[in-house]
Amino acid sequence: MAVKDRADEVVTKAKRRFGIENPSAADADGNVGTVRGALRAFGAGEFDQFLDALQEDVSWEAPSGDFPGGGDLEGRKALKDKFIADIGRTYTEFGFVPENFVDTDDGAVLVVGRFTGEAAESDALDVPGVQIWQFGRSTEAELIRIYTDSAAFPELITERKLKEREEEEERKKKEEEQEQEEQKAEAKGSDDSEDSDDSDSENKDDDQG
After folding, report:
1. What DSSP line would sit under 146-179, residue for residue?
2. CB 96 within 8 A of CB 129
3. According to CATH, what is the number of the domain 3-157?
4. What are the residue ranges spanned by the domains of the chain?
5. Which residues, listed in sequence order, are joined to residue 134 by a DSSP beta bridge?
6. What is the block-wise mean pLDDT of the chain (209 residues), using blocks of 10 residues?
7. What is the model's pLDDT at position 15?
8. Is 133 within 8 Å of 111 (Cβ atoms)?
9. What is the arrangement of strands in the sheet containing 71-74, beginning at the earlier edge strand?
10. Which H helix or E strand runs over 136?
């Protein structure tokens, strides 16, 4: 089964099983409240507050490809260096809009919703997804697992691509500055030539006089 089909199946089954969001459950304390607050903070760009909802050694499992932070990561620092950094380079806005929250008996919170945002170099993002937040004895999540179609996400801007782009922009800037200097030099040379012609003309008039 293709990645997209698997992601769609997870979303469909989750919606079919859990139905629409229960507002009272979504606003409740406990694990659901922790997840909801973390997602709100993330959408508002409060990344440190988002990370505070996770254990220091949190495990992260996300689809590879163009999903930011794709693959398996371990720890808050890895999430900050990969997931959040990918978003910062690729998107001007990024978040997850929850539609359903389910607090399971085994300490997990399942969230059905949509990844939304504005990419820096492409169209708006709006892709369905499912997040599973696993909690142990701590009030901080020990595992986050993401299900979505990474092929529907804009191409990630990596550190290498960003560096290449900056170097290209710097090269163009220098070329433009050099071209402007050459134009100024040509203009100055033209003015000096005209002044010289005027001086020669005046000298000839004086000789004739």
Report:
1. EEE-GGGSPPP--HHHHHHHHHHHHHHHHHHHHH
2. yes
3. 3.10.450.50
4. 3-157
5. 108, 143
6. 53 45 51 95 94 97 96 97 95 95 93 95 92 94 97 88 72 81 79 63 59
7. 46
8. yes
9. 71-74, 54-62, 141-148, 124-135, 108-119, 91-103
10. none
